[in-house]
Amino acid sequence: MKKVVKRGLIGVLIVVALGIIFIPRLGWLETEPTQQGGKKGSVSGGSLPVSGIVAQYTESTNGITAMGTMLANEEVELVAEIVGKVRGIYFQEGSHVKKGQLLLKVDDADLQAQLERAEFQRKLLSEKLERQRILLKRESISREAFDQLQTDYNVLQADIELLNVKISRTEIRAPFDGVMGFRYVSEGSYVQPNSKIASIVDNSVLKFEFSVPEKYASQDLKGKKVSFRVTGNVRVYEAEVYAVDPLIDVKTRMIMLRARFYNAKGELMPGMFAKGNLVVGGKNEYIAVPTEAVVPEMEGKKMWVLENGKAKSVPVETESRSAKFVEVISGIQPGDTVLTGGLMQLREGMTVKVTLSQP
């Protein structure tokens, strides 16, 4: 009986072994092949569909983008120079004043009394000095006595000049034609040196201060025209560059410029934000890509480009931008395929199928 069971088991093992060898060759265990574009497997045969553009140079004749601030031609904060009580205020806030006009007076009664006393002493010494000069010619007095009296007179004259300087410091006058700002003292106030009185601004001429990339350093920017607009005003204004900073900011790699705008009608005010174009003549070439192609990161900015059919991220540097495009100054070259759509699903080295569009 045991022999029969043993032979049966051997037979079963032989059948199983033959099945393992021959059944795969008959194709019974093969799965249904996945057809390209079918539901099984990845979309588009394993490639992620994305959109992109071919980077290329764009020509602009509008000039260099200029964004900056309007500055006053002259602006001074008036402060007290001497200790004392304010005796009079002779200006209104927001009023126009002329150069040299008296704006504020600090009480100087004590200084005036000292000056009057010194004037009497000078008169006395002057008369005495004249008598001594006559006596010196007659050799009735020594040269030493005359020189001492002359020195006393000169010292008194210097004291009078010093008193006049102190008295002048009790008066605050307009350093130039301008408009007065808010005042911070009242008549009767007790001021100390450096106590803020008011500010005066000359806005008849404004300075448009802005910066441009260092790559324009080789161009002669002085004398160029810059057209600009300010917030809340659709009018286009024009200024002329009169000064270029001789140093480049090492942090931003930008050059600071100032353009002069004649604000005869008083339409603009210092502190306004302005944006416009610096007209440099000729054509400017730059690489412009859609703004959605730029991916901000903690370390900076990057873009996805196509390399050998796969997605690759590259760090980039950008400058000026508009509502739809951004200027790229490093990281990509003309002819590179820049990916613009489907960026959220991209991974480094992923195979992609790009649908190109016009930039």
* Average pLDDT rating: 84
Q: How many strands appear in the DSSP assignment? A: 21
Major pleated sheet = 6 strands, antiparallel
Number of helices: 3
Radius of gyration: 43 Å
SSE order, one letter for each helix or strand: HEEEEEEHHEEEEEEEEEEEEEEE
| Termini gap | 87 Å
**Percent helix range:** 10-25%
| Backbone shape | elongated
| Structural class category | alpha+beta
- Going across the major beta sheet, what is the strand order? 2-15-19-18-17-16
Low-confidence segments: 23-44
Share of β-strand residues: 35-45%
Please explain how this structure is put together:
The protein is of the alpha+beta class and 359 residues long. Helix content is 21%, strand content 40%. It has 3 helices and 21 strands. The protein has helices at residues 2-22, 109-137, 143-168; strands at residues 48-54, 57-60, 64-79, 84-89, 96-97, 102-106, 171-173, 178-180, 190-191, 196-213, 225-230, 237-249, 254-262, 273-279, 284-290, 295-296, 301-307, 310-321, 325-330, 337-341, 352-356. Strands 2-15-19-18-17-16 form a 6-stranded antiparallel β-sheet, with no helix packed on it. It has a 6-stranded antiparallel beta barrel with strand order 3-10-13-12-11-14. β11 and β12 (237-249) form a beta hairpin. Residues 23-44 have low confidence and may be disordered.
What attributes does this structure have?
6-stranded antiparallel beta barrel, 3 helices, 359 residues
Topology of helices and strands:
Blueprint: H1 2-22, E1 48-54, E2 57-60, E3 64-79, E4 84-89, E5 96-97, E6 102-106, H2 109-137, H3 143-168, E7 171-173, E8 178-180, E9 190-191, E10 196-213, E11 225-230, E12 237-249, E13 254-262, E14 273-279, E15 284-290, E16 295-296, E17 301-307, E18 310-321, E19 325-330, E20 337-341, E21 352-356
Helix pairs in contact: 2-3
